[in-house]
Amino acid sequence: MKKMFTAIVALLTVCIQASAYNQVRLVINEGIYDQQVKQRMEKAVSAVMTEVNRSHEANLGKLNLSENYITKEAGQELNKLWNNEHFRCVEDEVVERCLTTRTGYQVRGIPLIVNAAQGSEELGYQEAVINFDKEGIITSIYYTIAPEIYSQLRMNQMGNSRHEVTEIKDRMMILDYVEHFRTAYNQKDLKFLRQVFSDDALIITGSIIKVQKSEVAPAGKKVIYRTQTKQQYLENLGRAFKTSKYIKVKFDNVAIVEHPTIKGIYGVTVHQNWNTPSYSDEGYVFMVWDFRKPDTPQIHVRTWQPEYVDKQRGQKLNPNDVFTLGDFDL
After folding, report:
1. CA 199-202-203 angle, 5° bins
2. CB 129 within 8 A of CB 106
3. What tens digit of pLDDT does each residue of 261-281 get?
4. Using CA atoms, how far apart are residues 6 and 3, in angstroms rounded to an integer?
5. C-alpha dihedral over 170, 176, 178, 182, to 10 degrees?
6. Diameter over CA atoms, the chain
7. Are 316 and 283 in contact (CB under 8 A)?
8. What is the pTM of this model?
9. Are 109 and 218 in contact (CB under 8 A)?
10. Which of 8, 23, 233, 318 is in Cβ range 3.0-4.6 Å of 203 for a Cys bridge?
């Protein structure tokens, strides 16, 4: 009887542990007609997100991802993110539509709760975007921009400039790389950032200094700018990656503008929130993206400007001072 009781207790323990994490199920409700590919996509996301939840519950250092559902490269990229941030899918069932992309399919809006990988510090709610090849295998998983911003971009509500991008497929392609770029900071992925910045990329960073009172101006604060080469920027970023337990970057308020005369060149402006355990800021990032080679786009310019010149006084950066395509000779 004692042995039987022990065996029952052990079995119950295994069952409790197995049910301690969500078994995730994806349901694609529209957007794709090939039922076989649809089922492969659903099965792939369900398997990967369930493995994420299992690893989160067990606090494992690595995700065990089957190449039946996700490419080797995509699995490696997801594990890079896992090394810095642990996350879990908070829904047992996720119902989303399928989008068609240039290279396959996409599902957005996978809900996640994110934690620092080396502790229990909660970093907040985030949604994931998952890309698939034409056979339904996962090729990438990134953090999304804010869903409402994405919806506005796809509904042609970007503003009045005649040069703003109007083709949905072009926007989706650009946003895919912008989302990958943003996630690379969370992954601490210097390799991708080294690839995506052109060799002669111009990096401009604003900082705030105090200004002493003079005969012609009162005391206050102003923004000054310094430039860096690609190499200098990546060396400084690499040091930040090493010393920060995590780096959490969020983009919102995205605007995409096409160059008026050079096809394939785009200006992308985002509002960025940057957070590490010891430092945080918010401001505007402007980038010049070159999509003339769509499979290997590059960034020629990246600028950062603070949102506030003097936050205590509520003094914001003048919107007219935010960098645009017109500020750079291409």
Report:
1. 115
2. yes
3. 999 999 999 999 999 888 899
4. 5
5. 170
6. 95
7. no
8. 0.82
9. no
10. 233
